[in-house]
Amino acid sequence: MNPDDPLDTEEARTANEPAGVDSVHSAEPFEAPTAGQQPSAGAQATEPLTRRSRFVDLTPLRASAPFARLWAGGAISGIGGQMTVVAVGLHIYALTDSTFAVSLVGVFALVPMIIFGLYGGILADTFDRRLVALISAIVAWVSTATLAGIAWAHVDVVWPYYVLSTVIAVAATVIGATRQSIVPRLLPKELLPAASALNGISMGAMITIGPALAGVLVATVGIQWTYTVDVILFVAAFLGIFSLPHIIPEGTQGRAGFSAVADGIAFLKGAPNVRLSFIVDIIAMTFGQPRVLFPAVGAVLIGGGAITVGLLTAAVAVGALLSSVFSGRLGHVRWQGKAIGRAITVYGAFIAAFGVVLLITAIQNPELHSVGESFTDANLVALIVGFVFLAGAGAADNVSSIFRSTLLQASVPDNMRGRIQGVFTVVVAGGPRVGDAYIGILAAFAAVWFPPLLGGFLIIVIIGILVRANPSFRHYDAQNPLP
């Protein structure tokens, strides 16, 4: 990075600080809310935010006990959720031998996720956000338990797994929208980048441990036990949500009907920075999400079966985890729109590089015959290089996510935050499912290596055009957060 660029320099931060805007190094005390006490949106940090360490800032965990419990509960239950995502893909592939059939898990869930993601945001702007999150968690837990039950009953038709995966995805979308609209009520805005980085660590742990553990469990004790472990781990989510204080939306509360979506759409029309942050993420997730290829990669390209699938899935999270661990400086980045554009461009480059790895491997195995389910039969060089590139993609995506989440939470008013967060959650959760369809269809009609190679280059080109064409986003100022 150019040291003369104001994106990440303390000199530019202080020299260009607008009059009337509080410094991010506020020294006013913050008292964390206790259970039953309404959190204050104007709360300030417990300590001056003057740290310059490269390691993750743990201040949010110390400043707010409710946030700490919510974060820990979500991380533990999320590990099980990611295990089930991998297990469902492996289960359907085992039943159908079809990558396209695996991609349909995301396709079938897409429209319900959009509808209920938006409605979940409406509920979060209307009712106690703690209650909304709790009910959604109950729905997800019951659906996961049912998934485990039919697997133990050896139900070998595919449609129940599609249905239950859709319900789980819908409930997770509502939980995500509600959870993220809760966080700004538990922490001051100065700590939101650090909170997003901590969420990156939890997400990295989820996708690192979950898929890897799923690969090992499926290969050793079977899919049924993999689902069952998720049922057990999900209990942690309830502990985090139960301990929250009641969080009623501030200001004029939203209406409970779908007509409230119109208010959110009207807000987005006048919020170019928030709107573009959604668009760039959709582009990245649509063209750069190769996860539905992993079962085929493990079977006919790299080899190694379920363990390879788990490792490749975990690679993205390893990168996200490492980038969050070393995220201490991100809280001081002022020009966050520019940072988002750069991070997504790097993401596209790593995805294209992964496509090159698959292309070279395909050239070495032109018949695309089975290369063995045993991990000892895997092409270890291709697996290691592919793992590194996917980890790089995960790191870049996480940096983008930290700034996109911070932009939304800091610039959107509280009584609108649930609805806009619902749109954000739909984008984050729905974008990859659009990508699943893109990858599945293109792989079926072209080759396994072609979708990530093409998609990576498309991301680089499109993001460059969009960021350059939108100067308000490119010059978005974290010290004067405008939607």
Automatic annotation (TrEMBL):
Topology class, membrane: Multi-pass membrane protein
Domain Major facilitator superfamily (MFS) profile: 229-483
Top-level taxonomy: Bacteria, Bacillati, Actinomycetota, Actinomycetes, Micrococcales
Region described as Disordered: spans on this chain: 1-47
Gene3D superfamilies with a match to the protein in the record: MFS general substrate transporter like domains
GO molecular function: transmembrane transporter activity
Annotated source species: Subtercola lobariae
UniProt-listed PANTHER family: ENTEROBACTIN EXPORTER ENTS, INTEGRAL MEMBRANE EFFLUX PROTEIN-RELATED
Membrane spanning stretches: 70-94, 100-119, 131-153, 159-177, 198-225, 231-248, 292-320, 340-363, 375-396, 437-467
Protein name, UniProt field: MFS transporter
GO cellular component terms attached to this protein's record: plasma membrane
Keyword annotations of the record: Cell membrane, Membrane, Transmembrane, Transmembrane helix, Transport
Origin superkingdom: Bacteria
Localization per Swiss-Prot or TrEMBL: Cell inner membrane
